[in-house]
UniProtKB/TrEMBL annotation:
Protein name: Deoxyguanosine kinase
One GO cellular component term noted in the UniProt record for this chain: cytoplasm
The entry's keywords: ATP-binding, Kinase, Nucleotide-binding, Transferase
Gene3D superfamilies according to UniProt: P-loop containing nucleotide triphosphate hydrolases
Family designation: Belongs to the DCK/DGK family.
Binding-site residues for ATP, renumbered to this chain: 11-19, 138-142, 186-188
Key word ATP-binding present: yes
Positions annotated as active site in the UniProt record: D86
Presence of the UniProt keyword Transit peptide in the record: no
InterPro entries in the record: DCK/DGK, Deoxyribonucleoside_kinase, DNK_dom, P-loop_NTPase
Transmembrane segments: none
């Protein structure tokens, strides 16, 4: 049996990760894994006071993502059922590095390493990014109450951090297929041709990977 497709979609807040993950799951009939966001009881407070609530917020996300990955490994990947997720666990380190104090970050990394060392790893990563105006526009359009207090400077730094993180990820994981798209150039929600372009790329990547196993 060859590798089981495990696709993750990543990028900063508001770039369209969940919308694209849903579309890919529907196109290929893959199991969809969506991260838990609205259920985080600390997130609203975090956007109001990042320094005060960052550790609680990041630990909640880490524990829930760990549990989700554990579940998909047990119930889907081990049963040879492909999965597409709207996040990659590496995002935890992107957010933690920006928001946690040094002492908190050291503890966080230790916990992260313990929880994730044997977690399932994706074989295809789709990376989305966009300029700050596009991100702010899309965040406003989806109208989540907990996101109304996002600081644009925080979002800009987050986008920059994602760029650096994906670059490092590609260098350290040459065996993983990374597909990159600009949210400024592609609107896969409103433009069917844009979505079909991405779906075609994913299909080609899946075929290429299956032929090299």
């Amino acid at each position: 049996m060859g590798e089981i497709p495990f696709i993750t979609v990543e990028g900063p807040i508001g770039v369209g990760k969940t919308s694209l993950a849903k579309a890919i799951a529907e196109a290929f009939q893959f199991q969809l894994l969506k991260e838990i966001v609205d259920e985080n009881p600390f997130l609203g407070k975090f956007y109001e006071d990042i320094e005060e609530w960052s550790f609680q917020t990041e630990m909640f996300f880490l524990c829930n993502r760990y549990k989700q990955l554990e579940d998909i490994q047990k119930h889907f990947l081990h049963q040879h059922q492909p999965v597409v997720a709207d996040y990659h666990i590496m995002k935890n380190m992107i957010f933690a590095q920006q928001t946690l104090k040094d002492s908190q970050y050291i503890k966080y990394v230790q916990i992260y390493d313990i929880l994730t060392h044997d977690m399932p790893k994706p074989n295809i990563v789709i990376y989305l990014n966009a300029t700050l105006p596009t991100l702010l526009k899309r965040i406003k359009m989806r109208g989540r109450e907990i996101e109304k207090n996002i600081d644009p400077s925080y979002l800009a730094q987050l986008s920059s951090d994602y760029e650096e993180a994906i670059k490092t990820f590609k260098e350290n994981n040459p065996q993983v297929t990374v597909l990159r798209y600009s949210g400024d150039e592609l609107d896969f929600v409103k433009n069917k041709e844009h979505l079909e372009h991405i779906i075609s790329d994913v299909k080609s990547s899946l075929l290429k990977r299956s032929s090299t196993i």
